[in-house]
Amino acid sequence: MKDCNEIKNLLNEYLDGEIKEISAVRKHLESCADCSGAFERLKEERRLVQKAFIKGEVSAYFNKKLIEKIQKNTKPGFNFSSAPLKFTYALAIILTVIGLFLFFFSPLKDKVVTPGPSKQVLVYFTKGEHMEVENIFASNNLTEEEVLINLFEDH
Amino acid sequence: MAQNLTDQLIENIQEREIIKKILGGDLGLFEKVVDEYKGRIYNFSLNILYNKEDAEEVALEVFYRFYKELKNFKCSCKILTYLYQIAKNLCVDFLRKKKIKEVDLDAVKDMLKSNDTPEENYIKGEERRAVLLALGSLEDAYRQALILRDMEGFSYKEISGILKENLNTVKTRIKRAREKVSLQIKKMMGSDNNERL
């Protein structure tokens, strides 16, 4: 049997429905005017507190500001869980591997492109320890990349 | 707020699906989540900070961080609980940055003016003012617990999850917050109103 002090200590939990000994508290309140009065005051004060809380609404452009902030600061490419992006990254890796393969095993590996006299482009290739001129291009309009492409096509 | 286990499991699965879809790029679904919860997060922040612009700034940041951190979302709690956790931390940081140690009670009084109709203000002005000032005078930790309980209706267990405090601490804070508010109300209203209460 709980005394008034114990009951008063449980009134907050009883009010909030967080108590196991509901029937024990209820029975005591039915027969004790002092504790019952304390409970009524607690209920009334809670009602006043609930009415006093300030309630408002966000501005009409809240969502717009939020989406703008997300789009400004979030880089979609870093969303690793996105399927199209996974495909893009996989493709980039494959192309890098192919590129590295061509770089290391390409017949162009041993070629050196250098500007020669009279705006000609000289291409050397290594043969043992020597470098010999393989091709000479008139280079007025040819870029180094175009020279290399021509060489690649030859091979 | 009490749910049976089946309802909880269903809600949990539904929330996991929502998160998965948002991570997949469904911004429209994210906006629906925002629309569902922005009011509650805003009002929670408003009753901590007592400033509409600051509360909106915090609410915006809550949802931005929620979106940004979503791929790391490992919380076994509900989305709403997670949002409140972020809101609580941001409010604390906000007050710390602004070096606000005590609530500006003038700001609290201003909030009263903007929310009440002239009639409400006249009839219940003094009473509501006393309660609001009493709430404003509480320490942040007590006020947070009371807001989550009496305004938001969370259970003690849910409040414990949001505030990351144990259950006994939550019970004590709510009890003490109510005692302090009661004492303040009695001081402000005087003995006449004490009888009425």
Describe the structure.
The complex is a heterodimer of chains A (155) and B (197). With 155 residues, chain A is of the alpha+beta class. Chain A contains 6 helices and 3 strands, in the order αααααβββα. A 3-stranded antiparallel beta sheet of chain A has the order 1-2-3, with helices on one face. In chain A, helix 1 runs parallel beside helix 3 (33-52) and helix 2 (22-31) crosses helix 3. By secondary structure, chain B is mainly α. Chain B has 10 helices and no strands. The longest helix of chain B has 23 residues, at 27-49. Chain A binds chain B through residues 12-13, 16, 18, 41-42, 44-46, 48-59, 62-63, 65-67, 69-70, 73-74, 76, 79-83, and chain B through 23-25, 27, 31, 34-35, 38-39, 42-43, 46-47, 50, 52, 55-56, 59-60, 63-64, 67-68, 71, 111-112, 115, 124, 127-128, 131-132, 135, 146-147, 149-151, 155-156, 171, 174-175, 178, 181-182, 185, 197.
Question: Radius of gyration of chain A from the CA trace?
Answer: 42 Å
Quickly count the helices of chain A.
6
What overall geometry of chain A do the principal axes of the alpha carbons give? rod-shaped
Number of strands of chain A: 3
Describe the main β-sheet of chain B briefly.
none
The stretches of 5 or more residues of chain A where confidence is low (pLDDT under 50) are: none
Helical coverage of chain B, percent range: over 70%
Regions with little confidence, pLDDT below 50 for 5+ residues of chain B: 191-197
Q: What is the beta-strand fraction of chain A? A: 5-15%
Helix tally of chain B equals 10
Taking the sheet with the most strands of chain A, its summary is: 3 strands, antiparallel
Mean pLDDT across every amino acid position of chain A: 76
Distance between the termini of chain B: 29 Å
Number of strands of chain B: 0
Helix and strand content put the structural class of chain B at: mainly alpha
* Strand composition percent of chain B: under 5%
